[in-house]
C-alpha cells in the first residue's frame, strides 16, 4: 500500500448556489478587481507555510476560496506549486502545514489527462477503486457539494453554467455535469469528474473508532484496493505503513479529536519510480526481491510527490483525506542546491522500515553513479561545497523558486520547464498489460 492521507472539507449546498449566483451576476466586475490586485495580494499563497499549534473554534465557519480567473488555455500550460518534500534526518511524522483553502483542489496542465485516466480506471476496475458503505450517504453528498462549490468558486472560467449551476460545464473536458435531482450517478463519480484528487471519507462510529466508509481512489500508485479497505479501521488500513503505531497514530488521533471544519492542513509524501503512471507505478509492480531493469536510463527516474490534505465536513462531521500525485524528474531538479544530495542520502540512510516500504533498495544502486555525478556537478558549479551539510531545505516543502511565482501565472521551473503529458499517455497504454499481471499476482497472495 502506498502511503496516503489528509483531509477535505465541505460547504453547504445552499451556500454554494448563493455564491455562484453572485459570481454570475458580478463576473465582469470581479475580473476587473482581480486584475487590479497588487502583487502582494496575488502572492499571498506563495509563502513557505509555517507549522505550529493551530486549532479553530468548533463553530468557526470554513474559509471561502477566492476566484482565480484563469482561462482553459491558461490552465493547459499552468504549473502548480513546486513540491520538494525532502527532509533529513528522515522521521516518520505527519509533518503537516496549514492549508490555504485556495489550494484545496489545485489546477495544473495535467488536469485533462488525470480526469481521463480516472475514467479509464473506473471503467476497467470499478469497485477496486471507488465505493461506499451504508451510513456514508450524507457525507458523500456533502463532499460532492463542497467539491462543486470549490471548483465553480475558485475557477469560474473553467466551470460554467447557464441555469444556476444545476448543470455545470467542465470547460477543460467539455462534459456537462447534471446535478438535477435525483442524481444520475454516485456522488463520488461527480467528485471524480471535477477534481484531480483521490478522496477518502472517514467517519467516527458510535464506538468512537474511525473507519474508511467511502473512497474514490483511482491513483494509489501501488496496491491499495478500496473494496478490501472499506469498513476497516485506520489501524487496519495503515498496517503496512512503517512506524504507524508508534509515530503516526498518536498524532493522527490527537489531531482528529481537535480539528474543526475551519482547520485545513496539508502535507506531502514521496517515493521514486521510473515512470509517470498514476494507478500503478513501476516500482510497486516489482515482485519481492526484484530490481529495476538494467537498461533503464537514470535520467528516466522521477520523484512522485503525494500531495495530501485533511479537513472536516461541517454537517456530517466526516473527515476527508485527499491525495494528488505529481511527478518531478530528478533531471529537472539537478541544479537545485542540495536536492541530489538529499535524495542520495535518504535512499541509503533513511530508517530501514522506510527504505523497504518505498522500495529504495530495488533501484538505489542503479542510480547511485548518476546521483554522484549530479552532486559533483553542483560542487563544480558552486551551488554547494563538499562540506555543505545535507539537511532539510530551507524552503521545505517547496522548491526555492516558489517565491518567484503566483497563483495567476503559476510556478514553472525557470531552468528546466517540463511537461510529461504525452509520456504519461504512452505509459498508460503500455502499462495496461502490466496492471493485469500484477493484480493477478496479488490476488494469489
TrEMBL record:
Top-rank taxon, per record: Eukaryota
Pfam family, one: HODM_asu-like
Alphabetical UniProt keywords: Membrane, Transmembrane, Transmembrane helix
Polar residues compositional bias, start-end: 35-46
Residues covered by region (Disordered): 35-78
Entry's transmembrane regions: 6-24
The UniProt record lists the keyword Transmembrane helix: yes
Protein name: Uncharacterized protein
